[in-house]
Design goal:
The protein is of the alpha+beta class. It has 3 helices and 11 strands; from the N terminus they run E-H-E-E-E-E-H-E-E-E-E-E-H-E. The chain is globular, with a radius of gyration of 17 Å.
C-alpha cells in the first residue's frame, strides 16, 4: 500500500519568517481541531509531528474511506520537496512558459543550482529559451512536482486535502505564493 503525503510549500518564506509563520498556521489548525497541539511520533522519517485532531475532516474531501493514521510534519528549514521516486521530465520557465527537457546536461545545471540554493538560500538557472535568470524556487515542473522552500506543511497518510483548505492555509502566510506537492513512497 505504501505511505502517501501531501505538502503545502511556501515559496516565498525565508528562514527568518518560517518559524513565525509555522506557529501561526499550527495554532490555527489546532484551534480548528484539524491537528493536535501535542507533538508525537506520527510522521514517517521525522522524530515528531502533530497527530490528527478531532475535526481533521475539515481539511479533506468528502470521498474518504479511511481516517488519517499519521500526522503533520512542519518543515522550517531550506528543503527540496519531491513527489517521491519520480523526477520531472522538463522544467517550465515562469517568465516565458518554455518547457526545457531535463536531459543529462540540463539536469546537471539544475542539480548544481539546487545544491547551491540548499547551501546558501539563493541560486538561479538561466532559461534556455528567454535567457532570463530564474531563481530555483520559481521554476515549475512537469509530471512529478518539485518545490523548494523554507516552510512546508507535510500531511502523511491523510485523505486528499480540499482546495479550500489549501487556500485557507495559504492565506495565513502573508500573501506568499504556495505550491502543492503530493506523492507516495
Amino acid at each position: 500500500m505504501g505511505d502517501r503525503f501531501q505538502v503545502i510549500v511556501d515559496l516565498d518564506a525565508d528562514e527568518a519568517d518560517a518559524a513565525r509563520l509555522a506557529r501561526r498556521v499550527v495554532e490555527r489548525l489546532v484551534a480548528e481541531g484539524v491537528v493536535l497541539a501535542e507533538r508525537a511520533k506520527c510522521v514517517p522519517g521525522q522524530p515528531l509531528g502533530h497527530p490528527p485532531g478531532p475535526h481533521w475532516e475539515r481539511a479533506v474531501t468528502d470521498d474518504w474511506d479511511l481516517e488519517p493514521w499519521d500526522g503533520l510534519a512542519v518543515h522550517t528549514r531550506r528543503t527540496g520537496f519531491t513527489s517521491g521516486a519520480d523526477m520531472p521530465g522538463a522544467a517550465l520557465c515562469p517568465r516565458c512558459g518554455a518547457s526545457t527537457p531535463l536531459g543529462d546536461e540540463t539536469w546537471q545545471r539544475f542539480g548544481t543550482a539546487m545544491r547551491t540554493w540548499y547551501d546558501t538560500g539563493t541560486a538561479t538557472v538561466d532559461c534556455p529559451a528567454c535567457a532570463t535568470s530564474v531563481a530555483v524556487p520559481d521554476w515549475a515542473w512537469d509530471e512529478a512536482p518539485l518545490a523548494f522552500g523554507c516552510l512546508g506543511f507535510e500531511f502523511w497518510n491523510w485523505p486528499d486535502l480540499t482546495d479550500a483548505f489549501r487556500a485557507g492555509l495559504a492565506e495565513l502566510l502573508d500573501g506568499h505564493r504556495t505550491t502543492y506537492v503530493w506523492g507516495k513512497l
